[in-house]
Amino acid sequence: MIGLMILTFFIFVILITIGLAYVVKRKWLRYCIILFLPIISYFTLFFEDFIRVFIHPIYCYVHKDEGMLIHTSPEEWGKIEGKDMVIMPSSRFNNGETSILTDQRDFDFEYEDQKKFGNDLYYLMFVNRKKPNLAIYISYDGGLFAKDTYLYYDINKDIILASLSLYHNNYQPLIFHKKNYECKARNITDNLDKYIDENYTSSE
Question: Phi and psi at residue 109, in whole multiples of 5°?
């Protein structure tokens, strides 16, 4: 059924193109109609496939070597003096939670929901269960060429520990749901969480 609709659409486009080319007297305008009308019609239906087949692989290849970035090594982190703040779990803290990350509301500390690092605005996502002064922030860079940056920040020592950028292509058709083609799986952020948990949560 869908194939028949697409075929009908292109037959209609071809007929319109021939009709306009026959009516229009100026050669340059006639050639423009013959050339661009079918192309525009094609991309109206298949631009998503064009992104998936051509744009997305190139975009991912350009960023293929970009992974986790260490801003402060565990050795450097251990030498930096902090404010010695004590963040305690609140009454709603769930000790049965298996994840190393938890909601910031589970602690008696007023976390900053938004924080600027450099020129980018980051939003607070979670905090580390073992060391709640370690918070993970995320920055969203939207558009067709999109990037989400996860950043681990030590509130006590006011330093960035590590970050990870995920690249993806977004496409919003006019009548369909938003399409998102990721270069790497979202669970790659588990590597960042594991690294932080193993290297920055031990006693200093």
Answer: -125, 140
